[in-house]
C-alpha cells in the first residue's frame, strides 16, 4: 500500500499549522492546499505577488487580473496582501516564509536536491525554485520514492543539476517520511506493509530509523472524495 | 502641461530599433502588455533581446515575436513548455537563452533601475547556473555576484494611467511591471483606462510618472485573455 | 486564529535585551514610533545599537534614549544639530557613530531583509565615507561595496494594523518603516488604529503581516507631535 | 550689486522648465520653490517619499503625516505620488530626477564638490546628499561666491571632504553663473558691475568666458516682495 499524489499532499497538510507562511510548488505540492485544516489560518504565498491565496474561484466570480503562480485564476484569503516581484522574492529569499513545499527529481542525504532541470527536457527553466530553496527555513520535498523505472530518488549524492545545496529538511514520498539531519537521513514514518528494511531497499542513501518510528496513518479517502492510498 | 499620453500603440513603439533590448512586464496574462506587443510585432524591429519572466504561452503576444523571428536572445527565468514558438527557435539555434533564477532576474532589473552596479545573492550558489560566476563569502555564507540589468525599452501594462505617467495596477498585474519601469531608457505602458490628473490617489500610485515616458489606453483583446483551467493552482 | 495584537507598548518591548540592535522607523515625526520608544526607555535595556536615519530632534523619543545613556552606538545618516542628547554623548565619547549615506543605509537594510549579502553603490566613491572600503569597477563606473544590515528588533509606526500584522501607512509615514519591517528578527509596530481583519484592502497593505510580529494600538502623544515652523521646506 | 539668497534661488528657478523632476537641498535651494513658474508643471521630489511636493499648508490645513525632507509640513501637488525610502532613493541614485539643486562649501573646476561636512561642526551628518550627487544628471550648486571671510569657494581642488566627484554641471552664486565643462570652468553670466576679471579675482580656479557671456538680469524685488539683489 502506497500513497497517491493526493495522499502525499494530505500527509504534508497535517504538518502545516496556524501561522505558517507556505509556498507550494507545482505538481504534488499545489495539491496540499486542498487538504489544509481550514480551521487554522495558514497563509499561502504565490511568487507572482500574493500572500494569502484563497480557493479557486467558482463560475463567474473570476477576476482576470488575479492569478497565482500556476497561472490559474485564484481568490484572496482573509488578510491577504498583494505586492510586486521584488517584495515577493524578499519574502522568499529573505527567509520570511516558514515553509516551501517543492517537488524533486533527487534528494541527497546532505539535503542537496534537484528539481529544476528535468531529464529529457531540452529547454531549461528555473523560475523561483532556487530562491525558495535558499530562503525558506523548512524545505519540504513531495515526490514519489522511486522513479517510474524503480530507481531510488533519495540518493547519497545528486546526479541531476542541483537546485540548492543542503537545504531540504524533510522528504514526503508515497512510501515514507524521511528527515534530513546533520547526522544523515532519519526514517520517521512508513506506509503500512513497508518496514524500515523495505524502505531502505528502495533508498540509495543509508537511513537511520527514528526512535519514535511509526506506521503512517492516512485514511483511504479524503473528505473531498479523493483516493489517498493505492 | 505635461502630457505623456499617446493615442496608439503603433506610435508608442515606433522608436524601437533593430537590436534593441526590451523588457516586457507581465506574469501569465496579468500585467502583460498584449497590445503593445502586437504593435511591436507589426512594427517589425528585428534582432531584439527580450527580457521577460517567460517566453509566452502560445502563438500570441511574446510567442508571436519569436514566431516571426524578431528576437535573437531571451533573458528569462522560465520559458514554459507551452512557449512553443520560442522553443522551436531555440532548439534550431536561432535564439539564445540566458537563464536567470527569477529572484535574481528581478533584483538585477531593480539594481539597473536604482543605480546600483550589482549584488550578492545566495540563490544559485553551487548550481550549474553559477558556473563561472564569482562566489564570495560574506559573514560565513556563500553568495553569487549578479550584475545590474537595464534595457532600451520597457513595454508594460497598468490598469489606470494619467497624463503624468502615473500608473496603478490591479490584482497581480504589478509583478515585473514595477521594477522594469525603473530600468529602461524609454518606458511605455498600455493601460485599461487613462484617467484625469489627480484621480489616482497619491498613495495609490504604484509606478510614479517619473519612471514612465508614454501611456496608451487600450481595450483588452479577448484572444489575449486565455482562460486557464481552474484548479491549476490554489 | 492568528492574533499579533498586544495591548501595551510595555509588553511589546519587554523582550528587548541589553546589547540589542534596534531599528527605528520614522523620518522626522512621520512614522516615528514615539510610544514604543517611550516604553523602551522605561524598559531600560542598555548598551543598545540604534539604527535610524537620525538621532531625534529633542529630549523626547530617540533623544531620550541617548539622554538616559541607553545607547552605545548609532548607525545613521543624519544626526541633526537639533539631536542635542546624542551629540552630547557622542562628543563625550560615550556613543559611537557609524555614518552611512541615507540611500546606502536604506539599501543595506533592504539587503538584510531580502536575503542578499551586499551590493555595489556609486554613492560615496572617492569620499572619506569610502575610506577603507572595497571599490570595484563595473562597466566602466566605480562602485563601493556595502554589506547587508539586520537587527534584533524593529520599532515601527503604522497608521492602520490588523491581527495578521498587516500595516498601512498614511502620507510620509512609510519612509524607513517598510524596509526595516523586513530586516529584523522581531518586528513591533505601533498603529493609530487596529482594524478588523480584512478591513485593509489587500492592494493597500503596505507591509504584509508576514514581516510583523506584534501590533499595538496607541494614541498619539501631543508632546511627540512637535510643530515645525511652516516654510522650512516647500 | 550682488544677489541675495532669494536672488540666487530666483535665478535658478528661471532655468527649470516643464517636466523637470527636481530635488531641492537645504539652504538656498529650498527657496527655489518660491520662484518657480507656476504655469509650468515641475515636480519637486522630497527624499523622505514624495514626488510632487506642493506649497506649505496654511492654517489648519496641516496634515501631521505629511512632511517634506526639511521636516516642515507640506502639501501635495496635482499628480503627486507617495512612496517609501527604497523607491525614493531609486529615483535619486538611479538617475531619474532631472535636477538636484544643492548647497556647497566648495566646488572644484573638475566638478568635484563638498557640502556635507561643515567646518567646525563636530558631529558629521550626510543624509541623502551623496546619493543625489551621483544620481541626478544635472547637479546645480547654489552658494555664495566667496566665504564670509572673502575666500573663494570655486577652487582648483576641494580641500573640504568631498560629497561626490566630477558631477557638478552648473554653479549659481550671488555674483555669477559658472558652467563646469570637460574643458574647465566657463563663466556664463555675471551680476551688473562685475566684469569677468572681477569675477575671476574672486575665483580660485581659472574661468573661460562664454562666447555668449552676458550680464545677469534679475529684478530688484520678486513678485512675493522678497529682495533679490543687494
Helix and strand string of chain B, N-terminal first? EHEHEHEHEHEEEEEHEE
Shape of chain A: globular
The CATH architecture assignment of chain A turns out to be 3-Layer(aba) Sandwich
Domains of chain A, number? 1
The amount of helix of chain B comes to: 10-25%
- What's the total count of β strands of chain A? 13
Radius of gyration of chain A: 17 Å
> For the residues shown, what is the average pLDDT of chain A?
96
Q: What is the topology?
A:
The complex is a heterotetramer, with 2 copies of chain A (230 residues) and 2 copies of chain B (234 residues).
Chain A: H1 5-13, E1 21-24, H2 28-31, E2 43-46, E3 50-53, E4 76-82, H3 85-93, E5 99-102, E6 106-108, E7 113-114, H4 129-135, E8 138-142, E9 154-155, E10 168-172, E11 176-181, E12 184-190, H5 196-201, E13 207-215
Parallel strand pairs in A: 1-2, 1-5, 5-8, 6-9, 8-10, 12-13
Antiparallel strand pairs in A: 2-3, 3-4, 6-7, 10-11, 11-12
Chain B: E1 5-6, H1 9-12, E2 21-24, H2 34-43, E3 48-51, H3 62-67, E4 71-76, H4 84-91, E5 96-99, H5 102-113, E6 118-121, E7 135-138, E8 141-147, E9 151-161, E10 167-168, H6 177-180, E11 184-194, E12 214-217
Parallel strand pairs in B: 1-12, 2-3, 2-9, 3-4, 4-5, 9-11, 11-12
Antiparallel strand pairs in B: 6-8, 7-8, 9-10
Walk me through this protein's architecture:
The complex is a heterotetramer, with 2 copies of chain A (230 residues) and 2 copies of chain B (234 residues). Chain A has helices spanning 5-13, 28-31, 85-93, 129-135, 196-201, and strands at 21-24, 43-46, 50-53, 76-82, 99-102, 106-108, 113-114, 138-142, 154-155, 168-172, 176-181, 184-190, 207-215. Chain A has a 10-stranded mixed sheet. In chain A, strands 7-6-9 form a 3-stranded mixed sheet, with no helix packed on it. Chain A is 15% helix and 27% strand. With 234 residues, chain B is of the alpha/beta class. Chain B has 6 helices and 12 strands. In chain B, strands 1, 2, 3, 4, 5, 9, 10, 11 and 12 form a 9-stranded mixed sheet that branches. In chain B, strand 2 (21-24), helix 2 and strand 3 (48-51) form a beta-alpha-beta unit. Chain B is globular. The model of chain B is unreliable at 224-234 (pLDDT under 50). At the A-B interface, helix 3 and helix 4 of A face helix 4, helix 5 and helix 6 of B. Strand 6 of chain B pairs antiparallel with strand 6 of chain C.
